[in-house]
C-alpha cells in the first residue's frame, strides 16, 4: 500500500452563511494557517468547505482509505463536531465522521488538539476512484456545534490536511512476439518477451497459432504454454505437430491475475521435406566428358529449384556439392534428368551422384562409378627388314600412348599390293604394358615370292590404332641359297 503526503486544500471557503456565523480568515487553511468562527450559543457554524487538494495518483491506483486531520481549539469549551464529511464533484457523500460526544474541542489556553478522521482502510462509507480524488471538487466540510445555549464561543480550526492511501491495481502483462526460429518440417520455435508484468507476475506464458496468412490467433486456437511464476524477460517454446510446407500465424501471450495479453502476430511457414533422388549409370562416356543421369522420384512437398550432378576423382567416397558439380536451375517436379559433365581427365575414375535442392535442403542419390576413356595410341610403320624366304621382321613405333599404355602391339598383314590390312587379317603381336617406343616382331609363314601389305598397330583401352601400310615381297628359295662346294 502507498500513501500520499498530507496535503492542504487549494481552496477554502465559508459557505451556507444563512445557517450560521461565517468563518473568518478561512483562506489561511490553504497554507496550513488558522480559521476562526464566532459560534453563538445553541447554534452551528457556517460550513467550512475545503477542496481542490490537487492529488495526482499513479495510473491504475485503487483507493484504499482517506485520512483527514485538523487541529481544533475552543475559546472556552462547549464546542463539538457537528459535521465532518467528504465531498465529490457531485456533492457531499458517505459517512459523517463528526465526534459529537460533546465539548471535544479543547478550550484555550491549553492549546489545540489534533483530531484524526478516517484512516488507511476507511473509505468513509462510499467508494472512490482515482479520478474522483484528483478532481477539484474532492474535499471535506467542517461544521461546528456550540452546545452551550447562551454563551458564544470562538472555534479555532488550524492545519487541515488530507492524505490518500492507495495501491496500484494489476493490469494484464505487456508482451512482444519475435520471429520464429528453428523452422522445420513439422515444428517451429516461438519467441516472445514479457516486457512488463502489469503489477502481477504472469503464471502462464506461451504461443497461440493457427494455419493461414492473415488474422490473429488467440488462446481459443491451438496453443502451447508453460506455467510458473514469470517476471519480465524473453521466453521460447517449441510448437510441434505442424503440417509440412504450411503457413501459420503465431503470437506470444502471457496471463496474470488480471488477464491475458498478446504480442503482435508473426508469419511462419514450415519446411517441406528435401526431394528424393536416385542416380543412374553414367552414359556417353568419352575421354573428357560423360553424361550424368538422375531422377527426382519425390519432391518432398515443394518443387526443386536446382538439380544436377556432383563428382570427384577416385574409386571411393561420396561427392557433394562442395566438390565439382554441374547443375540446372528452374522449377522441377518429379522425373528423370540428365546433364553433360565436361572438363574431365581422360582415362580417369570418377565418383558421380545426382542431387536436387528445394527449400527444405539438398538430397543426393547413390554414388555410381565411371571412368573416362583414353585416346588411341599413335603408331608408325617402318620398312620391313630381314626379308628372307617366308619370314620378315616388322618394324613399328608407338609415338604417343593416347593417355593409357598399349596392352598389345604388333603387325597385321594380307597378301596383295593394295589396301590396308587390319587385325581381322593375319597378325603377329605381343601382349604387355607398352609405352612409347620402337618395336619389332617376326612375321612368319609367308609365301615365297609373294606380295604383302603390312602395317603396325597397337591396342589400348581407347581402341586400336594403325600405322601406314608398307609393301613386302618375299624372296624365292634360291635367292637366299649359297652353294657349298666340296673339293676332292
Shape: rod-shaped
- How many strands? 34
Radius of gyration: 57 Å
Strand content: over 45%
CATH topology annotation of the largest domain: Jelly Rolls
Please state the average pLDDT score. Answer: 93
Largest sheet geometry: 5 strands, antiparallel
What class, by secondary structure content?
mainly beta
The residue fraction in helices comes out at: under 10%
Taking pLDDT < 50 over at least 5 consecutive residues as the criterion, the unreliable ranges are: 480-488
Number of helices: 1
Identify the notable features of this structure and list them briefly.
488 residues, mainly beta, Jelly Rolls, Immunoglobulin-like, 5-stranded antiparallel sheet, 1 helix, 34 strands, 1% helix, disordered C terminus
Amino acid at each position: 500500500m502507498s500513501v500520499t503526503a498530507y496535503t492542504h486544500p487549494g481552496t477554502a471557503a465559508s459557505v451556507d452563511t444563512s445557517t450560521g456565523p461565517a468563518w473568518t480568515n478561512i483562506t489561511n487553511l490553504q497554507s496550513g494557517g488558522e480559521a476562526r468562527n464566532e459560534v453563538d450559543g445553541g447554534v452551528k457554524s457556517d460550513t467550512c468547505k475545503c477542496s481542490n487538494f490537487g492529488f495526482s495518483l499513479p495510473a491504475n491506483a485503487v483507493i484504499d482509505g482517506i485520512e483527514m486531520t485538523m487541529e481544533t481549539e475552543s475559546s472556552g469549551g462547549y464546542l463539538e463536531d457537528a459535521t465532518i464529511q467528504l465531498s465529490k464533484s457531485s456533492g457531499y457523500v458517505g459517512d459523517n465522521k463528526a465526534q459529537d460526544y460533546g465539548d471535544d474541542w479543547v478550550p484555550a489556553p491549553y492549546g489545540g488538539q489534533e483530531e484524526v478522521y478516517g484512516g488507511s482502510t476507511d473509505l468513509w462509507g462510499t467508494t472512490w476512484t482515482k479520478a474522483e480524488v484528483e478532481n477539484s471538487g474532492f474535499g471535506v466540510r467542517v461544521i461546528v456545534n456550540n452546545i452551550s445555549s447562551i454563551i458564544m464561543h470562538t472555534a479555532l480550526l488550524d492545519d487541515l490536511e488530507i492524505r490518500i492511501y492507495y495501491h496500484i491495481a494489476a493490469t494484464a502483462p505487456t508482451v512482444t512476439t519475435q520471429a520464429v526460429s528453428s523452422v522445420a518440417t513439422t515444428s517451429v520455435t516461438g519467441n516472445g518477451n514479457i516486457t512488463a508484468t502489469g503489477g502481477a507476475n504472469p503464471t502462464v506464458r506461451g504461443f497461440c497459432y493457427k494455419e493461414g496468412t492473415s488474422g490473429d490467433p488467440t488462446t481459443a486456437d491451438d496453443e502451447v504454454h508453460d506455467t510458473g511464476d514469470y517476471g519480465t524477460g524473453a521466453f521460447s517454446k517449441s510448437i510441434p505437430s505442424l503440417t509440412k510446407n504450411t503457413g501459420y500465424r503465431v503470437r506470444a501471450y502471457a496471463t496474470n491475475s488480471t488477464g491475458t495479453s498478446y504480442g503482435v502476430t508473426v508469419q511462419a511457414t514450415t519446411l517441406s521435406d528435401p526431394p528424393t533422388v536416385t542416380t543412374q549409370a553414367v552414359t556417353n562416356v568419352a575421354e573428357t566428358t560423360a553424361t550424368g543421369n538422375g531422377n527426382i522420384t519425390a519432391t518432398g512437398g515443394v518443387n526443386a529449384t536446382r538439380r544436377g550432378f556432383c563428382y570427384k576423382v577416385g574409386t571411393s567416397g561420396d561427392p557433394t556439392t562442395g566438390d565439382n558439380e554441374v547443375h540446372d536451375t528452374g522449377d522441377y517436379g518429379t522425373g528423370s534428368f540428365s546433364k553433360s559433365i565436361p572438363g574431365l581427365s581422360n582415362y580417369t575414375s570418377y565418383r558421380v551422384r545426382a542431387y536436387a535442392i528445394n527449400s527444405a535442403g539438398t538430397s543426393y542419390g547413390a554414388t555410381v562409378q565411371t571412368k573416362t576413356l583414353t585416346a588411341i595410341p599413335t603408331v608408325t610403320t617402318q620398312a620391313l627388314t630381314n626379308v628372307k624366304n617366308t619370314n620378315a621382321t616388322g618394324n613399328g613405333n608407338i609415338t604417343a600412348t593416347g593417355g593409357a599404355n598399349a596392352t598389345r602391339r604388333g603387325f597385321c598383314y594380307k597378301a596383295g599390293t593394295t589396301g590396308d590390312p587390319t587385325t581381322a587379317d593375319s597378325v603377329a603381336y605381343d601382349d604387355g604394358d607398352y609405352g612409347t617406343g620402337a618395336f619389332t616382331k617376326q612375321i612368319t609363314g609367308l609365301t615365297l615370292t609373294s606380295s604383302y601389305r603390312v602395317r603396325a598397330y597397337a591396342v589400348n583401352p581407347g581402341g586400336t590404332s594403325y600405322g601406314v601400310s608398307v609393301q613386302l615381297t618375299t624372296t624365292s628359295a634360291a635367292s637366299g641359297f649359297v652353294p657349298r662346294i666340296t673339293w676332292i
